[in-house]
Amino acid sequence: MPIAFWCVLAAGILPVLTVAIAKWSAHYDNGEPRAWSQTLDGHRRRAYAAHQNGYEAFPFFAAAVFGATLLKAPQATVDALALAFILARIGYTACYIADWPTQRSLVWSAGWLATVAIFTAPAWALLR
């Protein structure tokens, strides 16, 4: 299985790990999780927001990986870009929780550009 597919799995798991930071010792209410999230503040609120953004980024990334693989883009390129996306998501989450908005935006942009590059990788192969 290509490394990029493992990265799709990692991208699906990262939001779950991120929200665990918000839930840790924050009197999580499983009965009303949406109401509970509105009571968060500080790093827990930012962790919850990073978790939501992880789910927002996931579909575009997954579609890019599967599409590029289906269309026979160079697998080494797709794998490297997928790893870059995962590293960017980890950095994004860390910056979000640490309340570093400028760095967070830069790292988010790197992850988004990696996804665009994966999506367009099959076209690059045609240009060679």
CATH A-level architecture:
Up-down Bundle
Radius of gyration, CA atoms, in whole angstroms = 16 Å
The CATH topology assignment is: Four Helix Bundle (Hemerythrin (Met), subunit A)
- The CATH fourth-level homologous superfamily: Membrane associated eicosanoid/glutathione metabolism-like domain
- Give the tally of structural domains: 1
Query: In terms of structural class, how would the helical and strand content be classed?
Result: mainly alpha
**SSE series:** HHHHH
Q: What do the pLDDT scores average to?
A: 94
Count of discrete alpha- or pi-helical segments spanning 4 or more residues: 5
Distance between the termini: 25 Å
Strand content bin: under 5%
CATH class: Mainly Alpha
- How many DSSP-defined strands? 0
- Characterize the overall form: elongated
